[in-house]
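seq as requested:
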Amino acid sequence: MPQKFPYLLKRNGNYSFRYIFPTHVQKALPHLPREVRRTLRTESHSEAVSLASRAIPLTQQLKRYRDVQSLSTFSEALMSFDFYAPSSLVSTPQKPQVETLNSPAPILSEAFEQFAKWRQWKPKAEAGFRKMFEDILHFTGDKPVNVISRRDIKNTLNKIALLPRRNNLKYGNTHVSQLAKLDVPEDERISSKTVKGYLALLQGLFSTFLTNELEILTESPTNKVKWETDVVRYACISNALIKELLQTAESKPEWFTWFLRIAVYSGARRSEIAQLKASDFKLDPDSNRYYFIIHTGKTAAARRCVPVHPRLIEYGLMEWIEGVEGELFPIPAKHPFRATDIFRRMVREHRNDTGEKISLHSVRHTFITKSRSAGISEVLIQQVVGHEKRGAGITDRYTHTFPLSAVLPAVDCIKY
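struct tokens:
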């Protein structure tokens, strides 16, 4: 059989070249036809391959680039491509030049503006990257890009690592020039993963754009610069501290009191609790137990029904829900870190004796740890907390959702 070759279509014995524009091209240039189809006027497969191969450089360029100017150039060239021109006359147009910068070695702020124009981020993404660049510019200085060294990049990252998380209300509206003067507690600093995001932005600017694209630099100062991501381990909170936190929460806003109680006795994620509505709570007729529905989450397994712990019934959860219409927790639904901030202020120590982090997410880890230590089956715990069912090999493929009555032990074993 003839070897398969992309973009070839055979109809009535003759071969044609057929190329469907990738999705990113169609979105960038909606006026284009969906595909290019040109007859090659041959019944020979080998000759058709030879002719169609001439257009491969253009298809590769269309796959590679994302900016409208380049895509327009290459798509137009492909649509008017002459498959029968002598090989010496067949050429691939060069990528359009980016607007010339003010000098061979622009200052950092000018380079970033051109980089942003070239990248064509979506508005929300661009706003985030501009905030990150504001920090970078403060620590690096607005100097010519050809004098910025690897040491400068490392020093900038080291200083950024000492900045606080901006979602903390204490720091949210403070300019980086003021934040840089603060001695931020370790537990309030940005994560190593976030610092790695700053490095990725710098690599895009210096390596991809200034070095590879514009060739202003012969070597990027980000070469061989790495930032290790810490593996954050969350602590299992002691029974005594959980009791103390539940008691302290009673003096906090009412929504937070119930928010923490549900977290402690269900192991649900912060984002899952924040989206709960009164209509999500129902009564299971088989077990005669209340449960709540989590509709969405991090994975497909996040959609689940979670039994309401008897202690929550004793607290009066169902009576409280009756007095609420719609969202139970509109504040954390709108401000995701509000519950985290309140919890942080309630805890005196933010690391345990082994260095594990104590935060609101630790409550979920505590629930899972206590259920496992009580000897509850792994798959029952996984269903309750929204983890994929794993650990039984091929049997996992045949294991479906357990009835509510089957997973009650995973919840009822939690006692304080």
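The beta strands are 8-11, 14-20, 35-39, 281-284, 289-294, 304-307.
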